[in-house]
Amino acid sequence: MPDYNFSEPQRQSGVGLVLIFATSLYHIGRNLWVVVFYFAFKEVDQRTLFFAGAGLMLLLLLSLAYSIIYFLNFKFHIDQKNEEFVLQKGVFSTDVINIPFRKIQQVNFRRNILQRIIGVYSVVVETAGSQDKEVEIRALSGEKANALADKLMAHAEEERAEAAAENYLDDSEVMGPDSTKALPQWEHKVSLWTLVKLGLTSNYLRGVGIIVAFYFTLREQFMFNEDLAAQIQEPQAYFSQGKYFFIIFLLLVGMLLTVGETVVKYFGLHLQKYKDTLQVEMGLRNNTKVNLRASRIQLLQVLTNPIQKKMDLFQVKISLASSENDLEKNQIKIVGLPPHVVEQVKEYFYQAEIRENFKITPSKYLLLRKISRGLIPLVVIAVFLFFYAQLVSLSWFLGIASVYIMLFSVYNFFYFKKLQLGVSEEFLIRHSGVWIQKEEYLEIFRLQAVSVSQPVWYKKRGLVNLTFHSAGGDISFPMVKKVQVQPVLNYLLYKIEVTEKAWM
Amino acid sequence: MDPIAAEEFSNFELKVASLPKFEEVTLHPISKKYLVKLQVGTTLSFLFFAVGIFLGYTFLPTEFHKYLFWAVIVILLLFGWSIFNNVMYVKKSGYALREQDIIFKRGFLFERTTVVPFNRIQHVTVERSFLDKMLNIATLKVFTAGGSGSDVSIPGIKPETATSVKEEISGRIYNHA
């Protein structure tokens, strides 16, 4: 690998210009397609056509000029003296973005289809600050991207190591530039077939939802056209006859869409464990490559459902520190993992095996509350029926109501049974979920704060709700006995306060 | 907790028993002047509604007056409740500093206690609005990396106290870092 020098301000790869221009063309196209539509379907005279053509040419020229200037003005370098990464950009004004090394959270790669065609990578620098959360350099060659990422991460680690002094157990701060080139300690590839299986066993309702949303937007688009609207109304009448057929059809399409979405999103999912980082690569349309470091992980979730469990398909969600409340965005989802890989991932992040010393369970009033709340709609309907008694016969209502109550009670019973908070010496583990079973792992020293809330009507029974705040999101746990959890809370606070390990 | 788990728990219960208990700390109350601020705010929004009803009474035809009457009752009830709630809120809220953390308890219907260890605090600010300056109080805000849920904002502290607490916390954050 040639040694790249990033200390001088420099531009992106030359082909980056193509990328910028293509992107701006794409944006123009997206905004102008209505106009194109107009020209395609309307009779236009020569003069209008000429002016439109001239306008388009001018627009293209302007956007080309814009792209060139943008490309020329986009420069970045590493400032060793001030210990920061500097990026300048802007066409009319000049923005200079300085990112101190210690603020760098992650350096990731991303590629969309065009970037793959012209053979460049996006390098995304994620920071801990609230503004300028991401800085993206959109066109770097693979080697250069790697070199830049390595340099930046090495600087970031160095800085952090200095700040956190001797807290590192291993020598993870010493990271040679060639360490990512080394062979991985273990790796795992998720095959296409696994993804298909995963899609088949996921929730189709999402897919159905997409179709329904699509249908409604289409309808809205064509509503202004009376004829078309009438045409759309007609098949509806047809469908109402073959209603069941229609529902099955909808489910089938929903299933296909779900499978398609899963495959596109996680295509080529590849985990590679190196000495001090776990590299995750995935995606068909937008290919991303993320380097996860154990020291950065705030919260880890393992999810599965009974069918997927049988097929050894587990999902791992990893939350990194985020300054804002958009926690979903800072989550990395890895799907379709067999249990031993999940174990390997956990082992890398947490080193030690997690053994729960004891479990906290919610009070039985939670079950009572859940069931009584579920009865509210029933009562409302009953009152409604009382006034309009002719609509449904009493026996029908009673039948449906009893089935509802039974299903509902069974569901809530399992919900209640599954909801547990495990406490080990170093971890909090929240177990939950009837269908989608979820385990959330939170290392105690990563806790930021602890909240205890108590509505007035819990007082008599001595119950409280707990919230554990971490930089990767909160974990909450409802309705526990105050006397039972207070020692645990005091223990947690003690653990946070004595720890000298940096939580990030 | 089932009995088997309880046995395992005893393993570190001993250690736990000797730990300081956050629930037993006596809290400093927040200033009564903050109550004044809350009541002023409530009264202002009440006045806003009162003006609306007055306008409705003057300009709407008489058949609507019946509804206005009910609106007045609802708003009066709400107002009474808010006034009462404010009093209870100030009465129930309080804060305390321990050697290692800050405790803040607030709320009447929904009581909520948050404990933030000093070594997890990102920064501390003292804020004063116009009304705060008139009443000579301040709001102490403690920010963590745990999102808005774990940030603590303590209203109704004397400005001097707020500043000294802020200095104190900043000093302790510095010691930890």
Key attributes of the depicted protein:
heterodimer, A: 504 residues, alpha+beta, PH-domain like, 4 domains, 7-stranded antiparallel beta sheet, 46% helix, globular, B: 177 residues, 4-stranded antiparallel beta sheet, 3-stranded antiparallel beta sheet, 5 helices, 7 strands, disordered N terminus
Description:
The complex is a heterodimer of chains A (504) and B (177). Chain A is of the alpha+beta class. Chain A is 46% helix and 25% strand. Chain A is built from 13 helices and 20 strands. A seven-stranded antiparallel β-sheet of chain A has the order 6-5-4-10-9-8-7, with helices on both faces. In chain A, strands 13-12-11-17-16-15-14 form a seven-stranded antiparallel β-sheet, sandwiched between helices. By secondary structure, chain B is of the alpha+beta class. Chain B is built from five helices and seven strands, in the order αβααββββαββα. The radius of gyration of chain B is 23 Å and the shape is elongated. The model of chain B is unreliable at 1-11 (pLDDT under 50). Classes of the chains: A alpha+beta (504), B alpha+beta (177). Chains A and B meet through strand 14, strand 18, strand 19 and helix 13 of A and helix 1 and strand 4 of B.
Write down the CATH topology of the largest domain in chain A.
PH-domain like
Order of helix and strand elements from N to C terminus of chain B: HEHHEEEEHEEH
The gyration radius over C-alpha positions of chain A equals: 28 Å
The total domain count of chain A is 4
The largest interface is: A-B, 43 and 41 residues
- What is the distance, rounded to the nearest whole angstrom, between the alpha carbons of the first and last residues of chain B? 38 Å
Question: Which value, in Å, is the CA radius of gyration of chain B?
Answer: 23 Å
Structural class of chain B: alpha+beta
- The overall strand count of chain B is 7
Describe the structure concisely for a colleague.
The complex is a heterodimer of chains A (504) and B (177). Helix content of chain A is 46%, strand content 25%.
